[in-house]
Amino acid sequence: MKKAGAAGWFIHDIKNRGVTAWITSLALIAFYVILYFNHKVDPNGRLDAFSRSLFSFLPESASPNKWTFYGFLYTVAITVGGLYVLYKYRHNKYQIVRTCVVMFVQISLGFSVPILLKIFHQPEYYFSYFWPLKFDYFHPSTIASQPLPFILYSFLGSLLLVPLLTVWFGKRWYCSWVCGCGGLANTFGEPWRHLTSKSTRAWKFEKVAIHTTLLIALITTAIYTMGAFTDLSGYPRFQSVAGFVKEYYGIVVIAVLSGVLGTGLYPIGGTRVWCRNFCPMAAFLGLIQKFGRYRIRVKKNMCISCGLCSKYCEMGIDVRAYAQSNKNFTRASCVGCGLCAEVCPRGVLRLENRTPLDPQELNFLTVLKKKERNGSRAISA
Amino acid sequence: MKIVIVGNGVAGISCALAARKRDLEAEIVVVSKETPYFFSRTALMYAYMDMMQRPDLEPHERSMYENQNIQLIQDEVVDLHSDRSTISLRNKGELTYDRLVLALGASPNMFPWKGADQVKDGIVHFVSMQDLDNCERLTPTTQSAVVVGGGLIGIELAECLAHHGVQVTFLIREPYFWPVALGAEEASYVTEHMRDHGIDVRYGEEIASIEADASGRVSAIKTNKGNTLAAQMLGICVGVKPQVEVFKEATTPPKIGRGIVVDETLATSLPNVFACGDCAEIHFPNKKEDERPLIELIWYSAKRQGELVGRNLFGDAIAYRPPLFFNSSKFFEIEYTTVGQVMQLEAGTPTIYLKHPTKHASVRIVHKDDRVLGFNMLGSRWDHNKLEQWVNERRSPEYCLKRLKSAQYDVEFGHVSFAGATSQSIALAKA
User: Percent of chain A beyond pLDDT 70?
Assistant: First the structure.
């Protein structure tokens, strides 16, 4: 039941898909449409000009544009939302540490560092983003324009650091600790985290949608790479398809799915519409997570099926279904925000990077160990 | 085979699911008068505080009942005819069964306080969906409320009312909070915590009489200490009792004591009729002369008993053996885990008590000679499975103290250390 008074009405209304929630959502969508598509109606780039005047105190080499302004707003949203989250969960050390890291990463790697790099005539590089989320870091044209250390970071980061950290800590090290999209969801988006659908239908949709986007991302990267290394002038049909894929990946996946809908739908569909259903990085990390060490442990027989865990899961995982049937679990979509464990009134749930491993489980490290053991047995026999 | 289950609480639904697991063909019908779907009673308080909405309280997606082919009927059972294997429903006629399961749960205790019979509105309980509706209807017109009863439901109701800005006076008959489960030391800081949340906690004070205004709504409570407390709501949370009234009047009643009498396989005195959960009174064979039959009134036992009956319906005749006792709760922000025997032991039983120097957190290890009997843990998280293991393995208190950390279950980075806590030896007072 909502609290009495106008404040009680408003808090309930905006958090539970009321009129104010719809208005907020429309406002956010409008903002993103203007941000991404303003060049269609505003060829003079008034938004860019506004950003230039706002950041006129920076040296000229910083060359601020509309994205600088957006980055600034984004950082403010994460900082303000982060302070709210720090206050709300002040009794929970995991939430404190995690939120501080999220805020720090956004303020530094997600905003100031790229501007500083530009000021010092280096490429505008975001160390907190990796392929396949930051798609262009694998594009030959981007690579050609970067100094070697940046190229090494792109490749080693995406192909070595990301999978290894995910095997060790689960995808949470990225999705709820480092990533800007996740950072915004877990700070500014806090009031709407419970809106993500927990239905089986939503889960089915998620599995198809997210892996489809991953596949499209892989294909698009392949097309870009092929274009750089081979002469395709003899294949006009391929070229036209390639051009189409390149253009529409940017518009559909980046602008519409991650921006307009991903953030615009916060007050209606919950905070992880993009992360849960479309982010190719989340899909990639999720597949690794299934075989890694991370899991949510469930204390046997202690669940009272109250459902707070499911209600407050931003990824739409029906945590209660596992808890009430006493099953430890690792779901590909789990970003390890730790809110299920936080809200559980009986302390049933615990996020773990487990050791020792359960020999009965399908697990990347178990498979390795088993091989070793079999090997040594073969020798002794 | 047609299985009819009366009651769609955790016992009834656990029974239905266990039965379905056992037999894919059986016809399973669940009858409830309270709600069309199973909901989690333990989450009522979260709906009251707007942390959840009504549909969130249902532990299973609604499609589950169809997938599992479990038929749900919302109606009230009014009679039982064991001779022709039917039950009568208030609106939907008769229902025949091959096996009948009574899982009616419990209903709140009520005492004949002076003036209670004059009250038409404003007295609430907090165990059913109807109670929640009632509380929500009354809250907007309530400035102050009195909650009676120093147990789990009482503190939950007090928390909800305080959340909505209602001035709450919490009347607790006992000398401190929940003495059947907590020691005086734990209770003292739980009380402090309640008072920090604005609850006016009063020990040793009880209702003397209830006063109502002209419309019949509660207006004030007079206490045995001569105080008059203005209140527009009166929460009665003085325990629950097995719900058996319906069957006392039945054409062929099962044997009824305080609850529905069952043997250790949870079978009642009637053929093909079982009972489980809060309404069951279990009589074990070879029980001692002075031992009372077992009535378990908690979520965990209802789930266990329901699952067992789901198998015994098919003739398994597995005896119910309650495992080592465990329970959990949360008093505002203080989490509570208990394992084994703690407060219901003879006076003088030694305990080791560690109080965290700054937090509202403590550890109590109850032991006899060199064997640990139980744990009472407040204010931090504990892996009760580990604590159970220590009791079952007859470990010594020293053994457990040395390994306390391995049973802790706090969030990452949030380990609550008892290394700096002073250890006291406190003998149990009389329970």
Answer: 93
